[in-house]
Write a structure and sequence with these properties.
This protein folds into 2 domains: 64 residues, no CATH class; 203 residues, no CATH class. It is 64% helix and 0% strand. The radius of gyration is 21 Å and the shape is globular. The protein starts with 15 loop residues before the first helix and ends in a 13-residue tail after the last helix.
Length: 347
């Protein structure tokens, strides 16, 4: 009789970690007397299982979302239009950009030993765009669906690839999760208001170590989180002023190289992958399709960076922005990309 146990055969509900985190914020905030216990059981279970953001966030605080269940919400034309805009842009990021680049990324990481450094660098850039398009896309869909119903969910991404420091990156990447770790791990440990800089560094390292573990029971995730924490400690203790453009280049380069560690199966795979980028670099052959998806991503992210709020995006004339949204929807419906799950469904 084979008594071996494999975790892959265990059936678990999708989004269990987000479900648990959202439940934890409710219990902890009551314990800390930040909110009062909800007396309406329907409201409580609706908060815990609110379907737009249940499986992959954003992680909503009870103080923000629970009060919204105490009033009747109507579907207005404004909310319908704004919500559909969010959903279409989210689907565009996910289906058109992330899924199509995902096929290329999978091929690169499976055959990295046979490729030159230029191709591997292109694969790393593609994965950085894929994971952002995938998760930001889901967040926008969730926020949009909630918006249509009259509910307001928190922003989860703020164009993180325009960050000029690691600290700024973590303020703009997966905001709901980053703020969760800050409020419920970093600050309870003492945050930066401790006796000395060594304890402050410990608090950062512990927080990012836990973040790495949350992403998966693999040493690659733990090392990825720990290195981010270590870099943040260095950045907080060494105050060197450098030009903004150089700061951006250094930040995005570090984030990009660490994404290789995040995506790799093992730590040795990641080190071999990264070493080949520097030792065997050659100009890669960039396919037309890849260039198109890079262009789409750049246009969308530049608009998000400039306007900040999707409600403000486009150009004042409704017929023109409707034309662009229709074009994006056509690309979504006509995409022949593989039907892949959202990356963060795994966490």
């Amino acid at each position: 009789m084979n008594e071996s146990f494999t975790l892959e055969k265990v059936i678990l509900p999708v989004g269990i970690s987000f479900y648990i985190f959202q439940s934890m914020t409710y219990v902890i905030d009551i314990y800390l007397r930040k909110i009062k216990p909800e007396t309406n059981i329907v409201n409580y279970f609706t908060y815990i299982s609110f379907f737009p953001q249940l499986v992959a966030g954003p992680i909503e605080r009870a103080s923000s979302l629970l009060p919204q269940f105490n009033k009747l919400h109507n579907i207005t034309k404004r909310n319908l239009y704004s919500g559909l805009k969010l959903v279409i842009i989210g689907l565009f990021l996910k289906v058109v950009i992330a899924d199509n680049l995902g096929v290329y990324v999978d091929r690169i990481f499976k055959t990295y030993e046979d490729l030159n450094g230029g191709s591997l660098l292109l694969g790393a850039i593609s994965f950085a765009i894929q994971i952002y398009g995938d998760f930001c896309g889901y967040s926008l869909i969730a926020i949009g669906v909630a918006k249509i119903m009259g509910f307001v969910l928190m922003e989860n991404f703020d164009t993180p690839y325009f960050s000029t420091s690691i600290q700024q990156f973590w303020k703009r990447w997966h905001i709901s999760l980053s703020s969760f770790f800050k409020d419920y791990i970093y600050i309870p440990l003492g945050g930066s208001r401790v006796q000395n800089k060594y304890l402050a560094a410990r608090n950062i390292l512990v927080t990012f170590f836990v973040s790495g573990i949350w992403h998966g029971a693999n040493w690659t995730f733990i090392l990825w989180g720990s290195i981010h924490g270590f870099l943040l400690v260095i950045q907080r203790n060494i105050n060197v002023k450098i030009p903004k453009i150089l700061s951006w280049i250094l930040t995005i380069s570090v984030v990009l190289l660490l994404w290789v560690l995040f995506r790799s199966e093992t730590i040795p795979d990641a080190f071999i992958y990264l070493s080949k980028i520097f030792r065997e670099f050659d100009i890669p052959d960039i396919g037309k399709g890849t260039m198109i998806y890079f262009f789409y991503f750049l246009v969308v992210d530049l608009l998000l960076s400039y306007y900040k709020k999707i409600d403000e995006i486009w150009f004042g004339k409704y017929f023109f922005q409707n034309y662009i949204l229709f074009f994006m929807l056509v690309l979504v419906l006509g995409s022949n990309s593989a039907n892949s799950n959202f990356i963060y469904f795994e966490f």
